[in-house]
Every structure is written in structure tokens, then in C-alpha cells.
Design goal:
single chain, 127 residues, mainly alpha
Length: 127
């Protein structure tokens, strides 16, 4: 197995996703104050896993296409782009069809991706 380290941007993105997901879980616990919070937490955890997978795939794609030719790199990026959206579609569909996963948690998780990207842009600008 080949060991690979994450890029600095991917590491910061994962850290931002962890912080945002933990914040949403704590806010959900405070809001629900009962065992009814479990579907919400499951939704946040499910979308956090999908977002983490998206970050890892994006990092791997960007590191792999550096040494590729133009058409091969374009094809690779397109396939990875579509695959990331298929993963999100599967997660959203699973959340919509199962009663024990909260769509509110999934929605906040989707928003956390955007917030993590914005925080990454802000953190990279400061440096």
C-alpha cells in the first residue's frame, strides 16, 4: 500500500468539516434535548462521511492530474466530478427514503461543505 499525505488545503478542509459537524451536533443536542436528536446526528454523520470522501477524492484527483496530458486530465477530472455528485445524490436519496435519518441534519451537512470552502479561502488568504 502506498502511503500518501494530504495536501495542506485538504487537511484544513477536513478540519473545518469536523469543527462544523461537531458544532451542528452540539446545537442539535441543545435544541432537541431528548433521544429525538439521534436521527439528526445520524444525518450529520452520514453527510460528514460523504463530505470527507469528497475532500479525499478531490485531493487525489488534483495530485494525480499534475502529471497527465490535457485530454486524459480533462477526462479524469470530469469522471471524478460526476462521481462526487453521484455520492452526494446517493446520500441525499438515502436520507430522504429512510425515516431514521433527518433531512435537517443532511441539509446542514451540505451547507457545511460550502462553509468549509469559504473558511478555507479565508484562511488561505490570511496566510
Amino acid at each position: 500500500m502506498i502511503k500518501r499525505t494530504l495536501s495542506e488545503a485538504a487537511s484544513k478542509m477536513l478540519l473545518a468539516l469536523i469543527v462544523l459537524s461537531a458544532t451542528f451536533v452540539v446545537a442539535g443536542i441543545v435544541f432537541y434535548r431528548s433521544m429525538a436528536v439521534l436521527p439528526f446526528i445520524l444525518g450529520v454523520i452520514l453527510i460528514f462521511g460523504a463530505n470527507s470522501l469528497r475532500v479525499l477524492m478531490l485531493d487525489k484527483t488534483t495530485s494525480d492530474i499534475v502529471n497527465m496530458e490535457g485530454p486524459a486530465a480533462q477526462a479524469r477530472v470530469l469522471i471524478q466530478f460526476l462521481l462526487r455528485y453521484v455520492i452526494m445524490g446517493v446520500v441525499i436519496m438515502a436520507a430522504a427514503l429512510t425515516p431514521y435519518i433527518s433531512l435537517l441534519g443532511v441539509t446542514l451537512g451540505i451547507i457545511s461543505w460550502t462553509l468549509a470552502v469559504l473558511s478555507l479561502k479565508f484562511l488561505m488568504k490570511i496566510k
